[in-house]
Amino acid sequence: MIKKKLMVKRILNTPEVYYKKGAIACLKSIEATNLLLMVARPVHESEYFAKVEKYTKEKTTLIESIDIINQDQIIQLREKYASTKLDAIVAIGGGSTLDPAKILRILLSHPELSFEDLKTNQFITDNHIKLVAIPTTPGTGSETTSVAVIYDAHGHKFPFTNQGFMPDMAILDHAFLTTLPVDLLHVFGADIFSHAAEGTLSMMSTPIMKSISSSSLDLLQLGFAQLHENPTDVKALGNIMYSGYLAGIVQGNAYVGVGHALAHSLEQQIKISHGAAILWVFKNVLGWYQKQTDKPIYQEYLDSWSSLGFEDYSSTIDPQAIDVDQWATATMQDPSISTSPIRFKQEQVIELIQWILQHK
């Protein structure tokens, strides 16, 4: 309703959220007839897609199987479906599927807009196409944010923020997590942790965000404790997925910080996944902050990180393969750095990078 920036706090969140194992059945009851299913290719090729088809068989559906796509490819999808009557886009996958769907929904609703327009107008809310987000990984929180991170044609990641990106509905069905190996769950868990922690530390944080962050981390600790006790405990997967959802609320409203800026620029430079980059840098980001400030919260986060066992799943990266100046420059250009708890200059980013490299 409010379409301008005001100096007051707000909470943006997906208005309808359905959750539990088997919640995918909600697809049968959505008030939409003509659907575009944007599905991550691994999900499309899995046994779970049969359930999606089961609950959408009474609808008119088109299917787009998605790999990681960039801005130019999203424009191509807009051209492909420009003359198609769609009531809703149903995005099923991780952030690399949900985020393009957020952007495509706006570009189909407003054919006159470009990516440059999305950088300057953050309040495009009158979309005639609904968006249903079904995460199949627990880490990104994309199902509940107005942020979409997308690659440009040169392989650079850029986070767009727009109120119109917020899904109309999210379905959290942790049945999708049952085939994920434990090492991948820890990669996603580290991303959840970083969203909750950096959202708390952010300059945009509030008591409400800190409370949600605390609940997210409590669920994350519970989920992994249950998983370590019983690797087939489905309730553990539910708690991890719900933790990711809550951390997404924190990320989407308080944003993140230098840890994510470093991760985005590192994954771009040496071509690793976002989760792997977070696993590699985040503990030492917390350690550097703790050294600079001596605030107890950083030690608390370090202890929690260790108790969750994330160190056992960190990637092996050759520090010699990293160009420090390039990493620092790209980090300074990443929008995530702007909400860090301190105002970074390039020399501080280089100091932080050197700290990370020395403690590997």
Automatic annotation (TrEMBL):
<protein>
    <recommendedName>
        <fullName>Iron-containing alcohol dehydrogenase</fullName>
    </recommendedName>
</protein>
<dbReference type="InterPro" id="IPR056798">
    <property type="entry name" value="ADH_Fe_C"/>
</dbReference>
<feature type="domain" description="Fe-containing alcohol dehydrogenase-like C-terminal">
    <location>
        <begin position="189"/>
        <end position="295"/>
    </location>
</feature>
<keyword id="KW-0560">Oxidoreductase</keyword>
<dbReference type="Pfam" id="PF25137">
    <property type="entry name" value="ADH_Fe_C"/>
</dbReference>
<dbReference type="InterPro" id="IPR001670">
    <property type="entry name" value="ADH_Fe/GldA"/>
</dbReference>
<dbReference type="Pfam" id="PF00465">
    <property type="entry name" value="Fe-ADH"/>
</dbReference>
<dbReference type="InterPro" id="IPR039697">
    <property type="entry name" value="Alcohol_dehydrogenase_Fe"/>
</dbReference>
<feature type="domain" description="Alcohol dehydrogenase iron-type/glycerol dehydrogenase GldA">
    <location>
        <begin position="16"/>
        <end position="173"/>
    </location>
</feature>
